[in-house]
Specification:
By secondary structure, this protein is mainly α. The chain is built from 9 helices and no strands. It has 2 domains: 58 residues, Arc Repressor Mutant, subunit A (Orthogonal Bundle); 134 residues, Tetracycline Repressor, domain 2 (Orthogonal Bundle), CATH 1.10.357. The longest helix has 32 residues. One of its GO terms (molecular function) is DNA-binding transcription factor activity. This is AcrR family transcriptional regulator. Keywords: DNA-binding, Transcription, Transcription regulation.
């Protein structure tokens, strides 16, 4: 009985250890090469067969979703901190968009699969994106009620603008201030005149 229990527990333990190891390797690999890096190269670097990698993560989106999970928790913590702060709703929205902008640039090239996930219901990234769009709508609605954001602005558009700024930061022509400048221009678009602050 004890041996049987151990034999069923061990494969699960090994599988979890493999999964964790693959995630650690993929984190380093995507940080070095961006998300366009080869899945097979990740498997090779992790010392596992491609079949093992794809059993855990059937596609790149599944691997990215797992890697972003820890960052999702960090972003949730920042959201909670912003909500507890006594800043204005308009400033809270700006701070949330800054946090979101950092999240979408976790890896070079990440904005594109996040954008694509918005139109692919089966993508494991879609639920994550939709959750952060809902959060953005919450912050936006409060800023609109306060009179600090234009009434026609939508949370989905602000989420897409964060993806756009993230894409710009990795563009060949971009420099260190490009993404910040684009975020400032976007804010001057959604903010009611008189509520803008110098970035």
């Amino acid at each position: 009985m004890g041996e049987a229990a151990d034999s069923t527990r061990r494969p699960r333990t090994d599988a979890q250890r493999n999964r964790t190891h693959i995630l650690d390797v993929a984190e380093r690999y995507f940080s070095e090469h961006g998300i366009s890096g080869s899945m097979d190269a990740i498997a090779k670097r992790a010392g596992v067969g491609a079949g093992t990698l794809y059993r855990h993560f059937p596609n790149r989106d599944a691997l990215l979703a797992a890697l972003l999970q820890a960052r999702d928790e960090e972003l949730d913590a920042r959201r909670n901190a912003i909500q507890r702060d006594e800043s204005t709703a308009t400033e809270a929205l700006a701070r949330w968009l800054d946090a979101l902008g950092e999240w979408v640039t976790a890896f070079d090239g990440l904005p594109e699969p996040l954008r694509a996930a918005l139109s692919e219901e089966g993508s494991p990234l879609a639920l994550t994106c939709q959750g952060f769009i809902t959060t953005t709508e919450h912050f936006l609605g409060a800023a609109q009620r306060e009179g600090g954001a234009q009434p026609w602005v939508r949370g989905r558009d602000l989420f897409l603008s964060a993806l756009a700024a993230g894409w710009v930061s990795g563009a060949a022509m971009a420099d260190g201030s490009s993404a910040q400048a684009l975020r400032a221009m976007m804010r001057s678009g959604w903010a009611v005149p008189g509520c803008e602050e110098t970035p």
